[in-house]
Design goal:
Helices cover 21% and strands 31% of the residues. By secondary structure, it is an alpha/beta fold. Catalyzes a reaction of the Smirnoff-Wheeler pathway, the major route to ascorbate biosynthesis in plants.
């Protein structure tokens, strides 16, 4: 089986992290976002993953070469010269996707994090005999999204309603699809939206089905959702593989600490924290609801909450970092500095406090 991952463009919503590397390579729970997807695809027998990309494909491919060998899966790129929407890239990668086997292929949105129920998806797809299956997830506020109206019993999709004013349902497109090769005959090689143009046509032919996603779902393409996604992901680890989580008197709730990270005496870490490879956390540090990426040093008695600390940055002693502060790569925060929602571009030194949310160029 094959899979296409829609990587797309510049990842502007996750800047300043995406100024250093393409969004799918930004760490999430101590490994590149896209690796969560590729590993799950490999587990259900996918042999080739195609990345639909219009921005720096060489960076992606060089990085993923190592994982290609490690996982034993082929990773290739299909490069757009202009943005092709969410369906155009399928037409562009047509020759890579069709191998004559007639097997369906996966299409994923690269920002989506979940438990990836791919084996259930394959079973459901084969059982209904339609042309395409989309995964849907239930949300509390459907009016912010495009809602999928479907038959509860069979999963057959009746129609789509964009940002409904009155309640028509609470299931939205989760950005995970399993499509028969025949779907490619419906897509022209031009910028096209799969959600707004292709799926409604398949639904009107009674050939589109939806499977409700078990477990959590999050689009982690922006900082607040990234932090929420980390909480949901760690909750799911607690249920499914609790041995991967850190234990100890200094740990509160769900915490992921890379084996190469060093945590000093008297720290209090958690809940909902990921500490990456090679990090050094000095004694007396307090971390909660945050991600600390590879190679970061946090000095004594610093306190970090609801923030993302980019690769190889330093946080000074007694510093306080909170309220969705995001430090890009190699940012150095001085001792006793306070950051209230600062968004700091890479390679900066911060010597004075950031008292209200702002971008530091």
């Amino acid at each position: 089986m094959k899979a296409l991952i829609l990587v797309g463009g510049f990842g502007t919503r996750l800047r300043p992290l995406t100024l250093s590397m393409p969004k799918p390579l930004v760490d999430f729970a101590n490994k590149p976002m896209i690796l969560h997807q590729i590993e799950a695809l490999k587990d259900v027998g996918v042999t080739e993953v195609i990345l639909a990309i219009n921005y720096r494909p060489e960076v992606m491919l060089n990085f993923l070469k190592d994982f290609e060998n490690q996982l034993g899966i082929k990773i290739t790129c299909s490069q757009e010269t202009e943005p092709m929407g969410t369906a155009g890239p399928l037409a562009l990668a047509r020759d890579k996707l069709i191998d004559g086997s007639g097997e369906p292929f996966f299409v994923l949105n690269s920002d989506v994090i979940s438990e990836y129920p791919f084996s259930q998806l394959i079973q459901f797809h084969k059982s209904h005999g339609g042309e395409a299956t989309i995964v849907v997830t239930k949300v509390d506020e459907p009016s912010k999204y495009g809602v999928v109206v479907m038959e509860e019993e069979t999963g057959k999709v009746e129609r789509f309603v964009e940002k409904p004013k009155i309640f028509v349902g609470n299931k939205i497109n989760a950005g995970i699809y399993l499509l028969n090769p025949s779907v490619l005959n419906r897509i022209e090689l031009k910028p096209t939206s799969i959600e707004k143009e292709i799926f409604p046509k398949i639904a009107s032919d009674q050939k589109l089905f939806a499977m409700v996603l078990p477990g959590f779902w999050m689009d982690i393409g922006q900082p607040r959702d990234y932090i929420t996604g980390l909480r949901l992901y760690l909750d799911s680890l607690r249920k499914n593989s609790p041995s991967k989580l850190a234990k100890g008197t200094h740990i509160v709730g769900n915490v992921l600490v890379h084996e190469s990270a060093i945590i000093g005496e008297g720290c209090l870490i958690g809940p909902d924290v990921a500490v990456g490879p090679g990090c050094v956390v000095d004694p007396g540090v307090r971390l909660s609801r945050c991600t600390v990426m590879r190679g970061v040093r946090i000095k004594k008695h610093a306190c970090i909450t609801s923030s993302i600390i980019g690769w190889h940055s330093t946080v000074g002693q007694w510093a306080r970092i909170e309220n969705m502060t995001i430090l890009g790569e190699d940012v150095h925060v001085g001792d006793e500095v306070y950051s209230n929602g600062g968004v700091v571009l890479p390679h900066k030194e911060i010597k004075s406090s950031i008292l209200k949310p702002e971008i530091v160029m």
